Amino acid sequence: MASTTVKAEFAVVSPAPQAVAPTAESVAPISATPHGARHIALTVLAVIASVAALYVAQALFVSLLLGILLAYTLNPLVAYLERIKVPRAVGTILVLAGVLAALGTGAYSLRGQVQTIIEQLPEATRTFSTALARLRTNPAGNLQKMQSAAAEVEKATTQVAGVPAAPRQAPAHVVVDPPGFKLNNFLLVGSVGAIGAVGQAIMVLFLTFFLLLGGDTFKRKLVRLTGPTLSNKKITVQILDDINDSIQKYLFMLLVTNVLVAVLAWIGFHMLGLENAGAWAVASGLLHVIPYLGPGVTAAAIGMAAFMQFDSFPMAFFACGISLAIATLVGTFVTTWMTGRIAKMNAAAIFISLLFWGWLWGVWGMLLSIPIIVIIKVVSEHVDELQPVAELLGD
Protein backbone atom coordinates (compact mmCIF):
# COMPACT_ATOMS: atom_id res chain seq x y z
CA MET A 1 0.00 0.00 0.00
CA ALA A 2 2.85 2.35 0.77
CA SER A 3 4.43 1.81 -2.60
CA THR A 4 1.14 2.44 -4.26
CA THR A 5 0.78 5.78 -2.48
CA VAL A 6 4.28 6.91 -3.53
CA LYS A 7 3.60 6.06 -7.16
CA ALA A 8 0.36 7.99 -7.11
CA GLU A 9 2.04 11.05 -5.67
CA PHE A 10 4.78 10.84 -8.31
CA ALA A 11 2.16 10.55 -11.02
CA VAL A 12 0.53 13.72 -9.82
CA VAL A 13 3.72 15.76 -9.44
CA SER A 14 5.69 14.62 -12.52
CA PRO A 15 3.62 16.39 -15.26
CA ALA A 16 4.33 19.82 -13.70
CA PRO A 17 7.66 20.52 -15.56
CA GLN A 18 5.96 20.03 -18.94
CA ALA A 19 3.82 23.14 -18.42
CA VAL A 20 6.85 25.51 -18.67
CA ALA A 21 8.37 23.95 -21.83
CA PRO A 22 8.84 26.64 -24.57
CA THR A 23 6.74 26.34 -27.69
CA ALA A 24 7.63 27.15 -31.31
CA GLU A 25 5.26 30.11 -31.41
CA SER A 26 6.97 31.81 -28.46
CA VAL A 27 10.51 31.37 -29.88
CA ALA A 28 9.99 32.27 -33.55
CA PRO A 29 9.33 36.03 -33.22
CA ILE A 30 12.42 36.45 -31.03
CA SER A 31 14.78 34.86 -33.57
CA ALA A 32 13.17 36.50 -36.62
CA THR A 33 13.75 40.10 -35.53
CA PRO A 34 17.59 40.01 -35.33
CA HIS A 35 17.74 38.18 -38.65
CA GLY A 36 15.67 40.89 -40.38
CA ALA A 37 17.69 43.70 -38.84
CA ARG A 38 20.92 41.97 -39.83
CA HIS A 39 19.69 41.63 -43.42
CA ILE A 40 18.80 45.34 -43.59
CA ALA A 41 22.15 46.33 -42.11
CA LEU A 42 24.05 44.19 -44.61
CA THR A 43 22.03 45.69 -47.48
CA VAL A 44 22.79 49.25 -46.34
CA LEU A 45 26.50 48.44 -45.97
CA ALA A 46 26.56 46.87 -49.44
CA VAL A 47 24.95 49.97 -50.97
CA ILE A 48 27.42 52.29 -49.22
CA ALA A 49 30.37 50.14 -50.33
CA SER A 50 29.09 50.13 -53.92
CA VAL A 51 28.71 53.92 -54.00
CA ALA A 52 32.20 54.33 -52.52
CA ALA A 53 33.67 51.99 -55.13
CA LEU A 54 31.92 53.90 -57.94
CA TYR A 55 33.32 57.18 -56.60
CA VAL A 56 36.89 55.93 -56.11
CA ALA A 57 37.03 54.17 -59.50
CA GLN A 58 35.33 57.03 -61.37
CA ALA A 59 37.88 57.16 -64.20
CA LEU A 60 37.55 53.43 -64.85
CA PHE A 61 33.76 53.28 -64.85
CA VAL A 62 33.33 56.47 -66.88
CA SER A 63 35.75 55.24 -69.56
CA LEU A 64 34.04 51.84 -69.61
CA LEU A 65 30.55 53.31 -70.01
CA LEU A 66 31.67 55.79 -72.66
CA GLY A 67 33.31 52.99 -74.64
CA ILE A 68 30.16 50.85 -74.41
CA LEU A 69 27.95 53.75 -75.54
CA LEU A 70 30.20 54.53 -78.50
CA ALA A 71 30.27 50.85 -79.43
CA TYR A 72 26.46 50.73 -79.33
CA THR A 73 26.34 53.84 -81.50
CA LEU A 74 28.75 52.64 -84.18
CA ASN A 75 27.84 48.95 -84.19
CA PRO A 76 25.04 49.31 -86.82
CA LEU A 77 27.54 50.79 -89.28
CA VAL A 78 30.04 47.98 -88.68
CA ALA A 79 27.27 45.38 -88.96
CA TYR A 80 26.16 46.88 -92.28
CA LEU A 81 29.68 46.69 -93.67
CA GLU A 82 29.90 43.08 -92.46
CA ARG A 83 26.67 42.24 -94.30
CA ILE A 84 28.15 43.51 -97.56
CA LYS A 85 31.12 41.15 -97.19
CA VAL A 86 33.56 43.58 -95.55
CA PRO A 87 35.59 41.84 -92.81
CA ARG A 88 34.65 43.04 -89.34
CA ALA A 89 38.16 44.18 -88.48
CA VAL A 90 38.38 46.26 -91.66
CA GLY A 91 34.88 47.63 -91.11
CA THR A 92 35.72 48.65 -87.54
CA ILE A 93 38.83 50.49 -88.67
CA LEU A 94 36.94 52.24 -91.48
CA VAL A 95 34.12 53.37 -89.19
CA LEU A 96 36.42 54.70 -86.46
CA ALA A 97 38.63 56.42 -89.04
CA GLY A 98 35.57 58.00 -90.62
CA VAL A 99 34.32 59.31 -87.27
CA LEU A 100 37.71 60.77 -86.37
CA ALA A 101 38.03 62.31 -89.84
CA ALA A 102 34.58 63.91 -89.55
CA LEU A 103 35.41 65.36 -86.12
CA GLY A 104 38.76 66.64 -87.36
CA THR A 105 37.21 68.20 -90.46
CA GLY A 106 34.58 69.97 -88.38
CA ALA A 107 37.14 71.29 -85.92
CA TYR A 108 39.43 72.43 -88.73
CA SER A 109 36.63 74.30 -90.50
CA LEU A 110 35.82 76.23 -87.31
CA ARG A 111 39.42 76.84 -86.26
CA GLY A 112 39.36 80.48 -87.33
CA GLN A 113 36.27 81.37 -85.32
CA VAL A 114 37.47 79.44 -82.28
CA GLN A 115 40.87 81.16 -82.45
CA THR A 116 39.17 84.55 -82.65
CA ILE A 117 37.07 83.76 -79.58
CA ILE A 118 40.14 82.66 -77.61
CA GLU A 119 42.07 85.79 -78.57
CA GLN A 120 39.17 87.99 -77.47
CA LEU A 121 38.92 86.46 -73.98
CA PRO A 122 41.34 88.89 -72.21
CA GLU A 123 39.74 91.92 -73.85
CA ALA A 124 36.26 90.60 -73.01
CA THR A 125 37.26 90.24 -69.36
CA ARG A 126 38.61 93.80 -69.21
CA THR A 127 35.53 95.22 -70.95
CA PHE A 128 33.17 93.40 -68.62
CA SER A 129 35.08 94.54 -65.52
CA THR A 130 35.09 98.16 -66.75
CA ALA A 131 31.34 98.06 -67.36
CA LEU A 132 30.66 96.73 -63.88
CA ALA A 133 32.87 99.42 -62.34
CA ARG A 134 31.06 102.07 -64.37
CA LEU A 135 27.74 100.84 -63.04
CA ARG A 136 28.97 100.99 -59.45
CA THR A 137 30.34 104.55 -59.79
CA ASN A 138 27.50 105.94 -61.91
CA PRO A 139 26.08 108.94 -60.00
CA ALA A 140 22.74 108.53 -61.71
CA GLY A 141 22.35 104.97 -60.48
CA ASN A 142 19.41 103.87 -58.41
CA LEU A 143 21.54 103.30 -55.32
CA GLN A 144 23.00 106.79 -55.48
CA LYS A 145 19.52 108.27 -55.88
CA MET A 146 18.25 106.38 -52.85
CA GLN A 147 21.20 107.54 -50.76
CA SER A 148 20.67 111.18 -51.82
CA ALA A 149 16.96 110.95 -51.01
CA ALA A 150 17.71 109.47 -47.59
CA ALA A 151 20.18 112.30 -46.86
CA GLU A 152 17.62 114.97 -47.82
CA VAL A 153 14.94 113.38 -45.63
CA GLU A 154 17.35 113.28 -42.69
CA LYS A 155 18.29 116.93 -43.23
CA ALA A 156 14.67 118.06 -43.38
CA THR A 157 13.79 116.10 -40.22
CA THR A 158 16.58 117.66 -38.18
CA GLN A 159 15.58 121.17 -39.33
CA VAL A 160 11.95 120.68 -38.27
CA ALA A 161 12.96 119.29 -34.88
CA GLY A 162 15.36 122.20 -34.28
CA VAL A 163 18.31 119.91 -33.68
CA PRO A 164 21.54 120.99 -35.34
CA ALA A 165 22.59 118.57 -38.00
CA ALA A 166 25.59 116.45 -37.16
CA PRO A 167 28.64 117.07 -39.28
CA ARG A 168 28.74 114.63 -42.14
CA GLN A 169 31.64 112.25 -42.02
CA ALA A 170 33.19 110.67 -45.03
CA PRO A 171 32.40 106.98 -45.32
CA ALA A 172 35.19 104.65 -44.40
CA HIS A 173 36.50 102.46 -47.18
CA VAL A 174 37.86 99.05 -46.31
CA VAL A 175 40.24 97.73 -48.90
CA VAL A 176 40.64 93.98 -49.04
CA ASP A 177 43.71 92.81 -50.86
CA PRO A 178 42.70 89.64 -52.71
CA PRO A 179 45.31 86.94 -53.32
CA GLY A 180 47.13 87.42 -56.57
CA PHE A 181 46.35 85.32 -59.59
CA LYS A 182 49.31 83.20 -60.60
CA LEU A 183 49.27 82.35 -64.28
CA ASN A 184 51.90 79.64 -63.95
CA ASN A 185 49.81 77.63 -61.49
CA PHE A 186 46.73 78.01 -63.66
CA LEU A 187 48.58 76.83 -66.76
CA LEU A 188 50.10 73.90 -64.85
CA VAL A 189 46.71 72.72 -63.58
CA GLY A 190 45.16 73.17 -67.02
CA SER A 191 47.98 71.23 -68.69
CA VAL A 192 47.66 68.32 -66.26
CA GLY A 193 43.90 68.23 -66.81
CA ALA A 194 44.31 68.33 -70.60
CA ILE A 195 46.85 65.49 -70.53
CA GLY A 196 44.49 63.42 -68.37
CA ALA A 197 41.58 64.09 -70.74
CA VAL A 198 43.65 63.07 -73.76
CA GLY A 199 44.73 59.87 -72.03
CA GLN A 200 41.15 59.02 -71.11
CA ALA A 201 40.00 59.71 -74.68
CA ILE A 202 42.65 57.30 -76.02
CA MET A 203 41.49 54.63 -73.56
CA VAL A 204 37.87 55.08 -74.65
CA LEU A 205 38.90 54.88 -78.31
CA PHE A 206 40.77 51.60 -77.83
CA LEU A 207 37.93 50.14 -75.76
CA THR A 208 35.43 51.06 -78.46
CA PHE A 209 37.65 49.44 -81.09
CA PHE A 210 37.91 46.14 -79.22
CA LEU A 211 34.20 46.07 -78.41
CA LEU A 212 33.31 46.63 -82.05
CA LEU A 213 35.87 44.06 -83.13
CA GLY A 214 34.41 41.46 -80.77
CA GLY A 215 30.89 41.86 -82.13
CA ASP A 216 28.47 39.47 -80.40
CA THR A 217 31.22 37.62 -78.53
CA PHE A 218 30.36 39.04 -75.11
CA LYS A 219 26.66 38.57 -75.75
CA ARG A 220 27.17 34.86 -76.42
CA LYS A 221 29.38 34.52 -73.35
CA LEU A 222 26.76 36.16 -71.11
CA VAL A 223 24.08 33.85 -72.49
CA ARG A 224 26.24 30.80 -71.71
CA LEU A 225 26.96 32.06 -68.19
CA THR A 226 23.27 32.29 -67.30
CA GLY A 227 23.00 28.51 -66.99
CA PRO A 228 21.90 25.46 -68.95
CA THR A 229 18.16 26.14 -68.81
CA LEU A 230 16.55 27.48 -71.96
CA SER A 231 14.32 29.92 -70.06
CA ASN A 232 17.30 31.72 -68.51
CA LYS A 233 19.00 31.97 -71.90
CA LYS A 234 15.85 33.46 -73.46
CA ILE A 235 15.52 36.04 -70.67
CA THR A 236 19.18 37.04 -71.02
CA VAL A 237 18.87 37.42 -74.79
CA GLN A 238 15.72 39.51 -74.34
CA ILE A 239 17.42 41.77 -71.79
CA LEU A 240 20.45 42.35 -74.02
CA ASP A 241 18.27 43.03 -77.07
CA ASP A 242 16.11 45.51 -75.13
CA ILE A 243 19.19 47.30 -73.77
CA ASN A 244 20.66 47.50 -77.26
CA ASP A 245 17.43 48.88 -78.69
CA SER A 246 16.90 51.43 -75.90
CA ILE A 247 20.48 52.73 -75.96
CA GLN A 248 20.52 53.11 -79.74
CA LYS A 249 17.21 54.98 -79.68
CA TYR A 250 18.46 57.24 -76.92
CA LEU A 251 21.66 58.05 -78.80
CA PHE A 252 19.65 58.77 -81.94
CA MET A 253 17.50 61.13 -79.89
CA LEU A 254 20.64 62.92 -78.65
CA LEU A 255 21.85 63.32 -82.22
CA VAL A 256 18.53 64.77 -83.41
CA THR A 257 18.11 67.19 -80.50
CA ASN A 258 21.71 68.43 -80.56
CA VAL A 259 21.64 69.07 -84.31
CA LEU A 260 18.32 70.86 -83.90
CA VAL A 261 19.74 73.05 -81.12
CA ALA A 262 22.80 73.90 -83.23
CA VAL A 263 20.71 74.81 -86.30
CA LEU A 264 18.26 76.99 -84.35
CA ALA A 265 21.10 78.66 -82.45
CA TRP A 266 22.93 79.49 -85.69
CA ILE A 267 19.77 81.04 -87.14
CA GLY A 268 19.15 83.09 -83.99
CA PHE A 269 22.74 84.29 -83.61
CA HIS A 270 23.03 85.09 -87.31
CA MET A 271 19.85 87.19 -87.22
CA LEU A 272 21.16 88.96 -84.10
CA GLY A 273 24.40 89.78 -85.91
CA LEU A 274 26.62 87.95 -83.44
CA GLU A 275 30.15 87.36 -84.65
CA ASN A 276 31.40 83.76 -84.94
CA ALA A 277 27.82 82.52 -84.96
CA GLY A 278 28.84 79.14 -86.38
CA ALA A 279 31.27 78.36 -83.56
CA TRP A 280 28.77 79.41 -80.90
CA ALA A 281 26.06 77.31 -82.54
CA VAL A 282 28.30 74.22 -82.55
CA ALA A 283 29.17 74.85 -78.89
CA SER A 284 25.46 75.11 -78.08
CA GLY A 285 24.75 71.79 -79.77
CA LEU A 286 27.66 69.98 -78.11
CA LEU A 287 27.05 71.28 -74.60
CA HIS A 288 23.34 70.54 -74.86
CA VAL A 289 24.32 66.89 -74.26
CA ILE A 290 24.88 67.79 -70.58
CA PRO A 291 21.43 68.40 -69.05
CA TYR A 292 20.82 71.78 -67.39
CA LEU A 293 24.50 72.63 -66.85
CA GLY A 294 25.51 72.67 -70.52
CA PRO A 295 22.86 75.19 -71.70
CA GLY A 296 23.61 77.42 -68.70
CA VAL A 297 27.33 77.58 -69.42
CA THR A 298 26.67 78.21 -73.12
CA ALA A 299 24.22 81.03 -72.38
CA ALA A 300 26.68 82.75 -70.03
CA ALA A 301 29.52 82.56 -72.57
CA ILE A 302 27.32 83.84 -75.39
CA GLY A 303 26.12 86.69 -73.20
CA MET A 304 29.69 87.80 -72.54
CA ALA A 305 30.54 87.56 -76.24
CA ALA A 306 27.52 89.68 -77.15
CA PHE A 307 28.39 92.27 -74.51
CA MET A 308 31.94 92.52 -75.83
CA GLN A 309 30.72 93.01 -79.38
CA PHE A 310 27.83 95.43 -78.76
CA ASP A 311 29.03 96.98 -75.45
CA SER A 312 25.47 96.83 -74.17
CA PHE A 313 23.95 94.88 -71.33
CA PRO A 314 20.50 94.65 -73.01
CA MET A 315 22.06 93.03 -76.09
CA ALA A 316 24.02 90.64 -73.88
CA PHE A 317 20.86 89.63 -72.01
CA PHE A 318 19.01 89.26 -75.32
CA ALA A 319 21.67 86.92 -76.76
CA CYS A 320 21.71 84.95 -73.51
CA GLY A 321 17.91 84.72 -73.61
CA ILE A 322 17.97 83.41 -77.19
CA SER A 323 20.34 80.60 -76.19
CA LEU A 324 18.29 79.66 -73.14
CA ALA A 325 15.00 79.85 -75.05
CA ILE A 326 16.25 77.47 -77.76
CA ALA A 327 17.64 74.99 -75.22
CA THR A 328 14.42 75.15 -73.17
CA LEU A 329 12.19 74.75 -76.23
CA VAL A 330 14.05 71.73 -77.56
CA GLY A 331 14.61 70.20 -74.12
CA THR A 332 11.04 70.64 -72.93
CA PHE A 333 9.17 69.47 -76.00
CA VAL A 334 11.42 67.42 -78.30
CA THR A 335 13.72 65.76 -75.75
CA THR A 336 11.00 65.06 -73.19
CA TRP A 337 8.67 63.61 -75.82
CA MET A 338 11.34 61.39 -77.38
CA THR A 339 12.71 60.26 -74.02
CA GLY A 340 9.23 59.30 -72.85
CA ARG A 341 8.66 57.19 -75.94
CA ILE A 342 12.07 55.53 -75.72
CA ALA A 343 12.49 54.84 -72.01
CA LYS A 344 8.86 54.99 -70.81
CA MET A 345 9.98 56.37 -67.45
CA ASN A 346 8.53 59.07 -65.23
CA ALA A 347 10.20 62.46 -65.10
CA ALA A 348 10.86 62.30 -61.34
CA ALA A 349 12.94 59.12 -61.70
CA ILE A 350 14.98 60.67 -64.51
CA PHE A 351 15.62 63.84 -62.49
CA ILE A 352 16.60 61.91 -59.34
CA SER A 353 19.00 59.80 -61.41
CA LEU A 354 20.46 63.00 -62.84
CA LEU A 355 21.00 64.44 -59.35
CA PHE A 356 22.58 61.26 -57.99
CA TRP A 357 25.01 60.58 -60.83
CA GLY A 358 25.83 64.29 -61.16
CA TRP A 359 26.69 64.36 -57.44
CA LEU A 360 28.77 61.19 -57.78
CA TRP A 361 30.65 61.82 -61.06
CA GLY A 362 30.07 65.48 -61.86
CA VAL A 363 29.60 66.38 -65.52
CA TRP A 364 30.25 62.82 -66.70
CA GLY A 365 27.60 61.56 -64.33
CA MET A 366 25.05 64.00 -65.73
CA LEU A 367 25.94 62.84 -69.23
CA LEU A 368 25.68 59.12 -68.42
CA SER A 369 22.75 59.23 -65.98
CA ILE A 370 19.97 58.52 -68.48
CA PRO A 371 21.70 55.53 -70.18
CA ILE A 372 22.42 54.04 -66.74
CA ILE A 373 18.83 54.42 -65.54
CA VAL A 374 17.54 53.00 -68.84
CA ILE A 375 19.72 49.89 -68.40
CA ILE A 376 18.53 49.48 -64.79
CA LYS A 377 14.89 49.70 -65.86
CA VAL A 378 15.30 47.17 -68.68
CA VAL A 379 16.98 44.66 -66.35
CA SER A 380 14.36 45.22 -63.63
CA GLU A 381 11.51 44.50 -66.02
CA HIS A 382 12.82 40.98 -66.73
CA VAL A 383 13.88 39.95 -63.21
CA ASP A 384 11.13 39.02 -60.77
CA GLU A 385 13.04 40.18 -57.67
CA LEU A 386 13.49 43.66 -59.21
CA GLN A 387 9.88 44.25 -60.24
CA PRO A 388 9.40 46.94 -57.51
CA VAL A 389 12.31 48.89 -59.02
CA ALA A 390 10.74 48.67 -62.49
CA GLU A 391 7.44 49.88 -61.04
CA LEU A 392 9.11 52.90 -59.42
CA LEU A 393 10.91 53.86 -62.61
CA GLY A 394 8.00 53.29 -64.99
CA ASP A 395 5.68 55.99 -66.25
The main sheet comes to: none
Task: Report low-confidence residues grouped into runs of 5 or more.
Answer: 1-17, 24-32, 173-178
CA-to-CA gap between the ends?
Answer: 87 Å
- Arithmetic mean of pLDDT: 74
Spell the H/E element sequence: HHHHHHHHHHHHHHH
How much helical structure, as a percent, in the residues?
Answer: over 70%
Overall structural class, as computed from helix and strand content, comes to mainly alpha
Please provide the count of β strands.
0
The number of helical segments is: 15
**Radius of gyration, rounded?**
34 Å
What share of the residues does DSSP label as strand, in percent? under 5%
Shape: globular
What does this 3D model show about the protein?
The chain is an all-alpha fold. The chain has helices at residues 2-13, 24-56, 58-83, 88-109, 111-137, 142-161, 183-214, 217-225, 230-272, 277-287, 293-310, 313-343, 347-361, 363-382, 387-393. The termini are far apart. It is globular and about 100 Å long. α9 (230-272) runs antiparallel to α12 and α11 (293-310) packs antiparallel against α12.
Summarize the structure.
The chain has 395 residues and is mainly α. 83% of the residues lie in helices and 0% in strands.
Main attributes?
disordered N terminus, 395 residues, single chain, mainly alpha
Q: How are the SSEs placed, and which strands pair?
A:
Elements: H1 2-13, H2 24-56, H3 58-83, H4 88-109, H5 111-137, H6 142-161, H7 183-214, H8 217-225, H9 230-272, H10 277-287, H11 293-310, H12 313-343, H13 347-361, H14 363-382, H15 387-393
Helix pairs in contact: 3-4, 3-7, 3-14, 5-11, 8-9, 9-10, 9-12, 9-14, 10-11, 11-12, 13-14, 14-15
